[in-house]
Amino acid sequence: MFTKFKLVWLVARREMRDQLRDWRVLLPMIILVFCFPILMNEFAKETVTFLNKYSANLILDRLVPFSIMIIGFFPITISLVVALESFVGEKERGTIEPMLSAPFDDWQLYFGKLLVGVITPLVASYLSIAFYLVLITQQEKLTIPTPMVMLQLMLLTTAHAVLMVSAAIVISVQSTSVKAANLLASFIVIPVAVLMQGEAVMLFWGNEQVLWLAVVGVMIISLLLIRMGIAHFEREYLLGREIDVINLKWLWDTFWKNFLGGTHSVGEWYGFVFRGSLRRILPAILAIAFIAGASIWIGYDWVMVNLPQVISKASPENLAKIQDRVSQMPDLASLRGQINAPFLFLNNTRAVVMIFLIGLVSFSVLGVLLYMVNIGLIGGLFALLQLLGVYPLPLFIAGVLPHGIFEIPALMIGSAAMLYFGVAIVTPQTGKSLGEVIIELLADWAKIFIGIVMPLLAVAAMIEAYITPVLLANVMK
User: pTM score > 0.90 for this model?
Assistant: First the structure.
């Protein structure tokens, strides 16, 4: 085992030596490492002077951690060019054939490039953060964050570096030119920048628990990216492709062929093609069912633990108003003509598609999280009614069960198809390119979505619009 990792270090050492010789990489990195903290320090001074006029102490306390997160991010974006040309750059320089013919395993080559790609931006980020902290110590109005916050910031910086470099190496393997790889870099920088905006909001709110979840989530996505890169790394693929061509006809033909599966009737399609796709996602359905149970319990437990504290602090008048509003429900039978079944169908369909799209860009991690939030609301609402003194079981039997027996399985099956997509894309599939795998998985998801999810949601919308209000109104009487 040690010998195998020694070969990884040989690849990394060769790559590191090439980087240290190239002044075009070192000079911008050095300038950014030492100049950007000075600019952020000047910005902090002006911000402190402005916020002191309004006694915004909370913002001042969060200003330094926010600046550290930004300072750690910029060196990673500059160093990303190293990872982007890790394989495709070797191909353009004509040095990839000797490297691929060396007695290395595929994972050793991949990890050697990945190791250097991660170390370079991290060293630059850590040096830049350390220099900024030195500048902060020279100011009286700004203080260094607590050790726990600093640990979170350093882990976030590390997670961002691993995430961006992992994505960059995947792009480098799949690209045919350095120009194409650099153009695709925006698909790395922009999503991570949006992610950092959400992390900045949590940072200013002071929600440290959610920040820990952000660290774990980013690292999980990073590991899945590494797994996907190794799963679809083929030496012959690197040597054989010379130019990328967008062939829309090939894309559509491949998708349509996988979607139909050679069938010629609806019954034949359901009997062979659809059934095969449903069988493939069966383990994912079982996993989603377990996640659903856990989410309902988490939602119920969270409301039961946290909401009593809020209710105990509320005045008797406000509490009485809430109880009156809960007990004085509107005449639901009169709403039958106003509730639109097509609107409910489109709304539920949009939710399933949104879960899939979010899971598509995060290897199902964010999609599963959104699914957990949706299902967890059931347990939270059950606990809320119970705390307000309303017996919830009859309301759920009349108000959720009639359409829920169709809507909840549709949501679970759609989420299971999304989870299967994330698992399958990081699984090695010999003889298929990454593009072919993605198209086939999209066709599988379309089969599940059109074959069972949409019909179940259509039935659920009809019941929710025209039957559930009548049942719920009778129970409320």
Answer: no
